[in-house]
Amino acid sequence: DFRSRSAFKLLEIEAQHLFLEKPHVQGVVDLGAAPGGWSQVVSRKLGWSREGKAPVRAPSGKTLKPAGTTQKSARVDFLDDSYDPLNIDDALHTLKGRGTIVAVDLLPMLPIPGVQSIKGDFLAPATVQKVRAMLARPENPGGKADLILSDMAANASGTGVRDIQSSLDICESVYNFAARNLRTVDETGDTRGGVLLIKYFAHPLLEEFSRRSLEPNFRKVHLVKPPASRSDSRETYFLCMGFKGDWERGTS
Ligand code: SAM
Is 199 in the active site? Predict the structure, then answer.
């Protein structure tokens, strides 16, 4: 009952590395979140929803198709400003999960319990400001993220060079955001530190980006290709664990 095949990739990476189902995970940002498979996984792991196909009901009382629907009118119904995912117990669910989950996409997304979504371009500074404002909630002490996920990819142009360049641009933007907004090892008061998971297209330029920006700033950087990811695609994930702080920028 997940909205995307990508959900299984996240579940597989989590099963191997166990970074999500931890009580200290309070702030999660899901970038390039639509249609919402990863956000559904996070919502469940943080206790906002449970497995199964519960009917989804709009605050108006109108019942929508369960997760997975692409019904356009349903999307529009939900995306008005009055929608507050932290206060819709009678509308969507009766569970009170923990923490703050923020999802961003260019496309609208049907609601998911506990997930606040922003429709916007993550590469635009205004969107980044909105994400930061949402993280700064009482439920999330310090206003930082414990986990930043990015499954963002630009539409494949068909010309390899452009696809690689846009993957690099996305990775750099996500890392720049993480450098300022991911909880560091020191802030967690122990040795955990925040975790960053970014999709990228395998290429020497991306490996160079990892050596330059990721490896110096995290305790461990894994290159992960989950079984659910097609083996003939370049798609791979950087799983960066234990954010030490960004030494180059001196923000730590
Ligand atoms: N993880 C998602 C899931 O499980 O449902 C699937 C994500 S899909 C592979 C990639 C998404 O990234 C698309 O929905 C696309 O709209 C989004 N995207 C690409 N560039 C973006 C940008 N600059 N800002 C926000 N979203 C972006």
Answer: yes
